[in-house]
Amino acid sequence: MPGAFSVSIDQGQLNRLTTLTQGLGKDANLALSRAINRTLGTKAGGMRVDIFQEIKRTHNLTKSFIYKQKGKEAQKTFYIEKATTHRPTGKISTKGANIPIIYYSNQRGVRKRYAKKIYVTVKKMAGRQRLQHAFIPALPSGHRGVFVRKYPNAKGAKGRVIKELYSSRMPDTLINKDTDAMTRVMTKAQARMDKNLAHEVDYILLKRG
User: Fold this and answer.
1) pTM greater than the 0.85 cutoff
2) Exposed, middle or buried, 121 (CB in 10 Å: 0-12/13-18/19+)?
């Protein structure tokens, strides 16, 4: 099953910001919901971009793949649950199944000719590695992936059984204990929220004259 990682901006976290919305009356939730949605990234910028940058910083994946995964279970990576004036809370989720190794390799993309040697770079800090016994079979379905023999020393039909190679899921790149990815994302999110809420409050007060 695809994994998922979620970050929520809820009413409890917003309690410290209530002083900014004092005096807005019925428009308080309007300011909150707009600020939350801008912070999550329903439009340009926001946490969606911050999370993308964290994944791109550490892992050798293309921008198009990070935003729209392909492979065994193709799907969007980011799902945003928008805030409304009736429910001024929001959530951004990062989802994904295990990523086929081919998307980390020199064999990814569409091209007329493919390299004979298969090299893979998963984490940028780990560098490039050559997969000695891996290959890309011509499957009837047209699916392309990096495979190895499941039972390399077996004879006959069993020796012809192959399996595709996968790496970790997209959410795993964020909750890895070896990085401070989520700390950086949340620090930026708090600063974004403060700025966005102040902007929305000023906008409402300006309209009132």
Assistant:
1) no
2) middle
Cα(192)–Cα(50) distance, rounded to whole angstroms? 11
C-beta separation of 91 from 6 below 8 A:
yes
One-letter amino acid at 169 equals: R
CA-nearest of 59, 145, 148 to 100 is: 145
Question: Amino acid identity, residue 121?
Answer: T
Tell me the pairing of strands 119-120 and 90-96.
Answer: unpaired
Which residue type occupies 180?
Answer: D
Cα–Cα distance for residue pair 141/95, rounded to 1 Å: 26
Other Cβ atoms within 10 Å of 34 Cβ, number: 21
d(CA 92, CA 6): 6
Residue 108's identity, in one-letter code, is: R
How far, in whole angstroms, is CA 164 from its chain's centroid?
A: 23
User: 76: helix, coil or strand?
Assistant: strand
Nearest to 161 by CA among 148, 175, 143: 148
Mapping DSSP to helix (H, G, I), strand (E, B) and coil, where does residue 177 land? coil
Tokens of 172: 């795993």
Contacts with 48 (C-beta within 8 Å, 6 or more apart), sequence order: 40, 41, 78, 80, 92
Low-confidence ranges of the chain (pLDDT < 70): 1-20, 71-74, 176-179, 209
